[in-house]
Specification:
365 residues; Arc Repressor Mutant, subunit A
C-alpha cells in the first residue's frame, strides 16, 4: 500500500500535537520523520511506543483511511498544511490533523459558533435557527456540533440562508452521530464541511465530545450560547472560547427556565448579553482582520436602507411608533399571520423593532 507519510503520524496513538511538533522541529517534514530510525524518533522526544506505531501502523486503520480518502470530497488536512485553519493553530492543543468531508476552503471563512442544549425549548430552537440564518446571510460561517437541539437548529438556519455551515463531529466521519442527522450531515457536506480529528472507523464516545468542543470554539471568532443548563456541554465550549481569547455571547431568558441558567451564569462571568444578531455582527466586525472582507453587515445595512422591501415597509408603517400586537398588524396589513410572525422575527433580529413584555412590538428609533 502506498500512502502519505502523514497517515502513520495521524494514526499513532498518544503522539499528539506536542509529539508532532517535536518531530517536525527535528526532521522538518513528515516524510523524513517516517524514514527515521526508531532510535532517532525516541531521541527527538517521543515515546518508544509512539515510535513503534509510526513504523508499524495498524493495517486495518490504514485501509479504512485509504478507502475513505478515495472519495473526491474527503480530505486529510495535517497541522503543517496551508489549508489548516490559522485560528485553530492558535489554541493550546490543536488537533494533529483534520478529517474533512466537503469544502476545505470553508475552514478559512470567518466562523461563529452557535451552541446550546440538546433538549432545547421551541423558542430556543427558533432563536438558534434565526440568529444563524441572519448571520450566515451576512457572511459568517456557522459552526456547531451536529447534536440534537440548538446545534441542529443552527445548521438548519445557515442552510436556509444558503450560507455556509461546519459541523464538528465527535466520531469518525463515516459514523455520523446521532444517526438521525445523517440527512442533515449530507446537506452540510454539499456546501460546507463536516470536520473531525478522529479517523474513519472511530465510534462516538463520551470523552470525544468535550474534545470536539475545543475545535468548535477554536475555529470560530466567537461563540454564541443560545440555551444551556448549568451542566450543559455548551458551557465547556464557552469556557474554551474564553481561554482561547475569543468572544463569548449569551442570550438571556426567563429566570424560571432551567435552560437559561447557564446563559445567565456566562453573562455574570463576562459574556456579552445579546438580544439581536446585529449585536454580534457589530461586536465582531472590528475583530475580524483580513476575514472582514467576507462579512457584509455594514454594506448590507446600506442596501436595506437604499432599497427597502415593500412588505417590510408596509409592516413598519402599519406598526407606527406605539406598541402593537401581531394580530392587529395582520388586520392592518392583510398579510397572513405566518407572514407577520416571520417578518417580526427578522425585524427583531435586524434590530429595527423590539418585543415588549406584554406580547406587543414597538419600532426602535
Amino acid at each position: 500500500m502506498s500512502y502519505s507519510p502523514w497517515w502513520p503520524l495521524v494514526l499513532a496513538p498518544d503522539l499528539g500535537i506536542v509529539g508532532i511538533r517535536q518531530l517536525l522541529e527535528r526532521f522538518e517534514d513528515a516524510g523524513t520523520v517516517v524514514a527515521s530510525s526508531r532510535a532517532e524518533l525516541v531521541a527527538a522526544g517521543i515515546s518508544p511506543e509512539s515510535a513503534h506505531a509510526i513504523h508499524n501502523p495498524d493495517q486495518d486503520a490504514l485501509v479504512a483511511l485509504e478507502t475513505w480518502l478515495a472519495h473526491a470530497d474527503h480530505h486529510l488536512v495535517p497541522w503543517s498544511s496551508d489549508a489548516y485553519p490559522s485560528l485553530l493553530k492558535e489554541i493550546a492543543r490543536p488537533p494533529v490533523a483534520l478529517f474533512v468531508s466537503g469544502s476545505v476552503d470553508t475552514l478559512s471563512l470567518p466562523q461563529l459558533a452557535i451552541v446550546g442544549s440538546r433538549k432545547a425549548t421551541p423558542g430556543g430552537n427558533d432563536n438558534a435557527r434565526n440568529f444563524a440564518r441572519y448571520l450566515a446571510s451576512h457572511g459568517f460561517c456557522i459552526t456547531s456540533g451536529l447534536a440534537l437541539g440548538i446545534d441542529a437548529a443552527a445548521h438548519h438556519g445557515a442552510l436556509a440562508a444558503k450560507g455556509k455551515t461546519i459541523a464538528v463531529c465527535g466520531s469518525g466521519l463515516d459514523r455520523i452521530y446521532p444517526a438521525y442527522h445523517q440527512e442533515l450531515a449530507t446537506l452540510i457536506g454539499k456546501t460546507g464541511a463536516l470536520v473531525s480529528e478522529f479517523p474513519p472507523g472511530t465510534p462516538p464516545r463520551g470523552a470525544h465530545f468535550p474534545q470536539r468542543n475545543r475545535i468548535i470554539s477554536g475555529l470560530s471568532v466567537g461563540t454564541l450560547v443560545v440555551e444551556a443548563g448549568l451542566r450543559s456541554g455548551a458551557l465547556i465550549t464557552a469556557r474554551n472560547a474564553g481561554e482561547q481569547g475569543r468572544e463569548v455571547f449569551a442570550i438571556p431568558g426567563s429566570i424560571h427556565n432551567p435552560l437559561s441558567k447557564g446563559c445567565h451564569r456566562l453573562i455574570r462571568q463576562g459574556a456579552k448579553l445579546v438580544e439581536t444578531a446585529q449585536d454580534i455582527g457589530e461586536e465582531l466586525s472590528g475583530l475580524l482582520g483580513e476575514m472582514r472582507q467576507h462579512v457584509e453587515f455594514e454594506a448590507s445595512a446600506a442596501v436595506v436602507e437604499a432599497s427597502p422591501d415593500p412588505q417590510y415597509e408596509l409592516l413598519l408603517e402599519a406598526m407606527g411608533w406605539d406598541p402593537v400586537s401581531a394580530d392587529l398588524l395582520v388586520e392592518r396589513t392583510q398579510l397572513t399571520a405566518d407572514q407577520v410572525s416571520s417578518m417580526l422575527l427578522i425585524l427583531e433580529l435586524d434590530g429595527r423593532i423590539k418585543p415588549l413584555s406584554s406580547g406587543h412590538y414597538q419600532q426602535r428609533e
